[in-house]
């Protein structure tokens, strides 16, 4: 009977073949309907996922070509069992399309979950910021009320002094008795005491003046009125005031502003390191403690420091040298701050929180920059070149060296990043976390590619990936656990998958050996997929025995607790807390850290040279 090779999209694959084999079983008809439903589902996905359109179109065209080839084989070799072989290959194609559909649905779900999580985080941040604003407003109200009470009391005292001086002025023409002379002396003494009290009050209000200029002006006005009243009483006091006017001096507030401006200018420069200690962090901490900034209730200097750090990393976010420099400084400053025993008020507490945020942010930027560097190379390390010969790896062979150059490129990037982090004295705890997360990323990328691409589950490809992984192993061994930590353990999935691909005599392996000895980290979904997709392109040996695969399938169907997903996720979270970081770092002695030239000769920073900080 002649079989038509025309494809009818409305009636499904092989319409004439369906006519020729009406007596097929219900199972075969169900599979035909399943293929038609799958085709319709893929058409619906085309309208939602533009990026998938080209891939699915190519797969359909490939399927058509393969189908025509299979029909030709069926027509020429029906009595040799070719029909069953074509059916199996067609089923594999349907399985691939089903998996692609599952992957697209999963990506869409993950995107929606990520968006929802981002919105929730933004809402929480907004609520936290609103709470901080409320606390700040309450503190400002308390400061105003307290200052107003002090000023009211001072005004009452000044009014009393005015009345007293006015009465003394009326008695000026009269002859002063000894008792009245004594009374006048007491008044002068009281005025001097009042002047001293006023000076002390001005010093206490300096911190409030930083945030509230109105109160500062009122205090200065009261001081000016008091001086005018005292001038009317004492000629000597008038001369003293005149002398002060002739030699004006800057207020303490203005001097402090100058010192803060100079320090900000200083830390914008690359200050380097002193015996492994970041100079910028040490100088900032010593200045904050000297100026008692941790104790004040109002100050904007913390925000200026944070702004300087943020501006530097935003402008040069792709420069790993700049990021490593600030990661070292910010993490050290955070550690020093946590060792501070003085009680921290609201500005200091917010400063600690912002330092924590910047440690996490800079860490994430460095980690992601390394991911970008190795990501393009991983694409070339997934599938072995056609002329790859693993037996020549231990021999001097330039052509084989070129074939594994992509793996060497990954090692070179790891070396480059590690040297940068070491040169800027980034805490080894953070260095270990960076490489551990990047090795986890390598594991997920390679493992998912092996499970998704049939051409990657071959014996030769297993040998190629194994040769590349050996380079990563030697790199971890060379750099020691101090800097790479448990990075090699993060490659367990791809290591065990490759071990399965290259193991010999697979049909003799039992399910217990495979699942508990060779590949204990892999779940049943992953084991089943790699076992059924494996092909030996070198020795043409079979995969696991049919009984083992059947038992594996039965366990998968009976175990509902296991997830149906076989792909690995890339974890981009921050894998440590502030407490973890502080516990990993030793206490630091910063007494002998010398100030940079910009401030070393300034008398306002003389405390930086002393042995003890005040």
List key phrases describing it.
614 residues, two-stranded antiparallel sheet, 4 domains, 71% helix, mainly alpha, 2 strands
Q: What number of domains?
A: 4
Low-confidence stretches: 1-14, 210-219, 225-250
Helix vs. strand class: mainly alpha
Radius of gyration: 39 Å
With strands numbered from the N-terminus, the spatial order across the biggest sheet is: 1-2
Mean pLDDT across all residues, rounded?
76
The portion of residues forming beta strands comes to: under 5%
Q: Could you estimate the helical fraction of the residues in percent?
A: over 70%
**What's the helix count?**
23
State the total count of DSSP E strands: 2
H/E element sequence: HHHHHHHHHEEHHHHHHHHHHHHHH
């Amino acid at each position: 009977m002649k079989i038509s090779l025309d494809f009818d999209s409305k009636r499904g694959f092989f319409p004439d073949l369906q006519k020729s084999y009406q007596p097929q079983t219900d199972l075969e008809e169900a599979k035909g309907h399943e293929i038609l439903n799958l085709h319709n589902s893929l058409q619906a996905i085309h309208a939602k996922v533009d990026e998938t359109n080209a891939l699915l179109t190519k797969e359909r065209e490939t399927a058509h070509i393969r189908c025509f080839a299979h029909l030709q084989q069926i027509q020429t070799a029906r009595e040799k069992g070719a029909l069953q072989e074509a059916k199996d290959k067609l089923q594999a194609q349907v399985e691939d399309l089903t998996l692609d559909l599952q992957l697209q649905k999963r990506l869409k779900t993950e995107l929606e979950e990520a968006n929802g999580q981002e919105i929730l985080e933004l809402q929480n941040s907004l609520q936290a910021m609103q709470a901080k604003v409320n606390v700040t407003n309450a503190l400002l109200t308390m400061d105003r009320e307290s200052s107003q009470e002090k000023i009211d009391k001072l005004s009452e005292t000044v009014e009393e002094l005015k009345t007293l001086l006015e009465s003394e002025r009326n008695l000026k023409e009269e002859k002063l008795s000894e008792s009245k002379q004594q009374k006048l002396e007491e008044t002068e003494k009281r005025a001097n005491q009042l002047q001293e009290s006023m000076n002390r009050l001005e010093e206490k209000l300096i911190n409030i003046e930083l945030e509230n200029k109105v109160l500062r002006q009122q205090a200065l006005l009261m001081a000016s009125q008091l001086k005018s009243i005292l001038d009317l009483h004492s000629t000597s006091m008038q001369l003293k005031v005149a002398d002060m006017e002739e030699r004006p001096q800057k207020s303490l507030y203005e001097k402090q502003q100058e010192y803060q401006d100079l320090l900000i200018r200083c830390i914008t420069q690359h200050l380097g390191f002193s015996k492994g200690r970041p100079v910028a962090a040490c100088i900032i901490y010593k200045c904050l403690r000297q100026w008692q900034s941790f104790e004040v209730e109002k100050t904007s200097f913390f925000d200026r420091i944070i702004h300087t750090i943020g501006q530097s990393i935003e402008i040069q976010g792709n420069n790993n040298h700049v990021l490593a420099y600030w990661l070292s400084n910010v993490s050290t400053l955070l550690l020093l701050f946590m060792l501070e025993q003085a009680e921290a008020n609201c500005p200091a507490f917010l400063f600690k929180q912002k330092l924590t945020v910047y440690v996490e942010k800079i860490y994430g930027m460095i980690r992601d920059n390394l991911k970008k560097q190795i990501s393009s190379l991983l694409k070339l390390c997934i599938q072995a070149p056609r002329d790859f010969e693993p037996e020549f790896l231990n021999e001097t062979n330039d052509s084989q060296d070129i074939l594994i150059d992509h793996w060497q490129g990954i090692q070179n990037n790891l070396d480059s990043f590690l040297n940068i982090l070491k040169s800027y004295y980034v805490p080894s705890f953070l260095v270990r976390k960076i490489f551990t997360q990047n090795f986890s990323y390598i594991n997920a990328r390679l493992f998912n590619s092996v499970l998704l691409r049939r051409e990657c589950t071959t014996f030769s490809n297993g040998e190629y990936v194994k040769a590349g992984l050996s380079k990563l192993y030697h790199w971890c061994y060379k750099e020691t656990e101090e800097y790479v930590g448990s990075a090699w353990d993060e490659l367990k999935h791809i290591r065990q998958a490759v071990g399965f691909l290259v193991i010999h005599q697979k049909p003799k392996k039992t399910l217990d050996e495979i699942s508990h000895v060779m590949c204990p980290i892999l779940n049943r979904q992953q084991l089943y997929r790699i076992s059924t997709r494996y092909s030996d392109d070198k020795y043409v040996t079979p995969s696991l025995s049919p009984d083992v695969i059947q038992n594996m399938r039965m366990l998968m169907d009976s175990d509902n607790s296991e997830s149906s997903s076989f792909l690995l996720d890339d974890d981009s979270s921050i894998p440590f807390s502030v407490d973890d970081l502080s516990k990993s770092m030793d206490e630091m002695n910063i007494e002998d850290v010398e100030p940079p030239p910009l401030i070393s000769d300034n008398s306002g920073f003389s405390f930086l040279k002393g042995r003890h900080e005040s």
